[in-house]
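Appendix C reproduces, verbatim, an entry submitted by the partner laboratory led by Prof. M.T., so that reviewers can inspect both the input and the predicted structure.
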Amino acid sequence: MLTATRRALLLERLDRDRRIVAKEIAAELDLSEDSIRRDLRELAAEGLLTRVYGGAVPASPAVADYGARTAIASDSKSRVAAAAAALVQPGLTVILDGGTTTLAVVQHLPRSLECTIVTHSPTIAVALLEHEAEVILIGGRLFRHSMVASGAAAVEAANRVNADLFLLGVTGIHPTTGLTTGDADEAAMKRVLASRAAETYALGSAEKVGAASPHQVLPLDAVTGLVLDAEADATSLERLRETGVRIVEAR
């Protein structure tokens, strides 16, 4: 089988099954696992998939720069944001992650809602200017890709926060790889923020469900639940349900 044909087949299977098991497809094609792994490495280098132990899963398009991400799955993000905003009740202290989905959450919060919102995103803080909520902004080195504060100063400040709820933004939500993002330092900061909240919900618009990025933030069993677009890939949603994680479906 020609390399181009084999690569096309791998991408077709990935689109259909939302995962590739190298051992299984090597046996099916009567090829060595090394050949399949080499194909997967090359496809991963082109950003067409994310390699995981034993195979590959879809790559998340949400690793694009901040400006580009604002145009990705905007309707889906709005549905997820509305469902997530409903979790924010009066009097709560809520940590709001950076990113375009959490920015959409702000748009769905009633301006008269009295609560405390902690964020390490200056974009989120500015969006809350006309809200009644008290806003606490965590500072640090600006990570421009996600428009959030990062680094030692941000971690130190985050470790002094105690919150009722954390609305977590990620770039991938997959039943095997869990909750992932594209940057190791950003993943570490998200873990710190999750550790400071009594409950954590990860937000997943359609393009993130069933996809993965290189760096794990948390396994699925480490969060209270997921807020996912009900119109996301049906196979991926079903596999996530099978893990037992709580899912709030956004419609």
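Residues 3-17 form the longest helix (15 residues). Additional entries are available on request from the coordinating office.
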